[in-house]
Design goal:
Length: 590
């Protein structure tokens, strides 16, 4: 304050650029608050205030700043970075600050976007069919649902009283076709409720309570559902080196996970990977409804060649959209691919701000930012009485596959499920290349009751047997590398054969196979149960004096590997047949 008085500096809604350093711009004489959105330079490039010191305001710009120079104007909007919420977000592809890419392409008449071009996050001219769910005289509170709009063939968009409105008594409701900005419900105090809301991306939307999740997010991936399950409302990390399958695993989860809404954030990933997502998703069929998968999906594409500052904001854009659908009572799965690129964007901006660096040059607040993001996941009691969840699955790309680097380590302190991808497994063509010895889930105990009630009473017991067998195999492999397999006792050699079936028939899964790409929990349980039957009968035969070679050469054993690719309406009979043949053939040996 005294500095401004001494220099007689004046501040206004329009300032002047003082310096430009990549995406970081400083301006003087600008009346601004932290996180205000500003428009920089003659072209009006979007930016956000990230630091204020005296009359110098520091801005991170969400677009390329080449050609911008000192003396150009900076205009302040006086509002923080917000997203447009309303019908039309699904089946849409946005950039990192919620500009619809198809609309921008149409404006530019080119796939290459000019700087300074802008468009609202939802179409303000499109009309939607609104059906009210309240009547005149009803009392509505903040967050209450006042009507429904069929947003896609799959999802009904529920129009709510904005969280920052107190509510009141309904004096008028409308039914019919309206744009998102036309009032559809009017309260006695004159408050007009429209289908369109805005919300600051860095602020949580309010809820009543965050509850302990007790329902799994069924993924259709045997190693995940069977050994390392994720709860609806849970958090998971998928770290792994280049080429180990992070993106494919996340895409499989986006396609098949048991969620109502999918928000997929491509945060700084390679352009060819995002192109594949953008091309593939509109053609995919939703296994839940048979409709297009995009009818319940929102894509945010911010590739590695896009401006670095927009990468920092795209995860907030995605989580805010997810919270809006959660408030409607939906279960949302959010994929962030990858949080390492987000952290690298923070590191670059932090270095340009000349902040004191932390470990490996990342800003000292890296852990806090990661926590703020992941803590917005959860299973919630919403203010309107519904329940909804956001499950966050974040990919991490540690350089050289080094899990000791700061982003991976700080993520592990926050998330409760860890799916560790292994380049050695990927090189051996074992997919998904999730290392079962390094991975874990802290949700297993609280999800066991669901699996007992909905799949099988002994689900936890069989899972523990599989984990123990794989652990024993890991120990035995170290001995095998020293002395060879033939030097082991027969019971340990048989354990290795059982573990091989676990790896090949249970843990491996073909994401490109029409049947094997999705495995329902019942089938996951039956495959494991079949391997357990083989284990029990084989060890009985071994105890009776039958050599391991004879036990493993029975005709029925190799058929275990074929169950995963057997159609879901035929596998039960096939499993029963193999089980019967296994028992018969193994018992015939003694």
């Amino acid at each position: 304050m005294s500095q401004a008085t001494d220099t007689d500096a004046t501040v206004a809604d329009t300032g002047v650029i003082r310096s430009v350093s990549g995406p970081v711009v400083t301006a003087t004489d600008l009346d601004a608050r932290m996180n205000d959105v500003v428009y920089v330079g003659e072209e009006g490039l979007m930016g956000e205030v990230i630091e204020i010191e005296g009359d110098v305001t520091t801005i991170q710009v969400y677009e390329e700043t080449s050609g911008v120079g000192p003396g150009e104007p900076v205009d302040n909007t006086g509002e923080p970075l917000t997203v447009d919420l309303g019908p039309g977000m699904l089946d849409t592809i946005y950039d990192g600050v919620q500009r619809p890419l198809d609309v921008l392409e149409e404006k530019m008449n080119s796939a290459f976007l000019d700087r300074g071009v802008d468009a609202p996050g939802i179409d303000l001219e499109e009309e939607w069919e609104f059906t009210p769910e309240v009547e005149e005289g009803d009392q509505v509170e903040s967050g209450d649902v006042v009507g429904v709009v069929p947003e896609t063939v799959t999802i009904d968009h529920k129009v709510m009283v904005p969280p920052d409105e107190e509510g009141g008594v309904v004096s008028e409701t409308k039914e019919g076709t309206f744009t998102v900005e036309e009032p559809v419900v009017v309260l006695e105090d004159g408050t007009e409720i429209t289908m369109h809301q805005e919300w600051p991306v860095r602020d949580k939307r309010p809820t009543v309570e965050k509850e302990t999740p007790t329902t799994p997010l069924v993924s259709g991936q045997r190693i995940l559902d069977g050994l390392f399950p994720l709860a609806k409302g849970g958090t998971a990390a998928i770290p792994g080196p280049f080429g180990s399958g992070k993106t494919v695993t996340q895409q499989s989860l986006a396609k098949f996970a048991d969620a109502d809404i999918v928000v997929y954030i491509g945060c700084g990933e390679r352009g060819n990977e995002m192109t594949e997502v953008i091309e593939d998703f509109p053609e995919l069929e939703d296994p839940k409804s048979g409709n297009d998968l995009m009818a319940r999906t929102c894509l945010i594409a911010n590739t590695s060649n896009m401006p670095v500052a927009a990468r920092e904001s795209c995860v907030y854009t995605g989580i805010t959209i997810a919270e809006h659908y959660r408030d409607m009572g939906y279960d949302v799965a959010l994929m962030a691919d990858s949080t390492s690129r987000w952290a690298e964007a923070m590191r670059e901006i932090s270095s340009r701000l000349e902040e004191m660096p932390g470990e490996e040059g990342y800003p000292a607040y890296l852990a806090a930012r990661l926590s703020q993001f992941y803590e917005r996941a959860g299973y919630f009691q919403n203010v309107n009485g519904t329940e909804g969840s956001i499950s966050v699955i974040g990919a991490v790309s540690p350089p050289g596959g080094d899990f000791s680097e700061p982003v991976t380590q700080n993520t592990l302190r926050i998330v409760k499920t860890f799916w560790a991808l292994d380049s050695d497994l990927a090189e051996r063509r074992h997919f998904p290349a999730i290392n079962w010895n390094d991975s874990y889930s802290l949700y297993r105990d609280q999800l066991d009751d669901w699996f007992r009630d909905n799949v099988a009473e002994d689900w936890p017991d069989k899972r523990q047997w599989a984990v123990d067998t794989l652990d024993e195999e890991d120990e035995l492999q170290e001995i095998v590398q020293l002395v060879g397999k033939d030097a082991l006792p027969e019971d340990q050699r048989l354990t290795l054969e059982v573990a091989r079936f676990l790896r090949e028939a249970y843990l491996q899964q073909n994401a490109l196979h029409d049947v094997d790409r999705y495995c329902p929990p019942e089938k996951t349980y039956d495959i494991l149960g079949l391997i357990k039957t083989f284990n029990d009968e084989a060890f009985d035969a071994l105890d009776a004096g039958v050599p391991v070679e004879e036990i493993t050469s029975v005709d029925a054993a190799p058929k275990i590997n074929r169950v995963a690719t057997t159609p879901d309406d035929e596998y039960e009979a096939f499993v029963a047949e193999i089980e019967e043949n296994l028992v018969e053939q193994l018992r015939a040996l003694y």
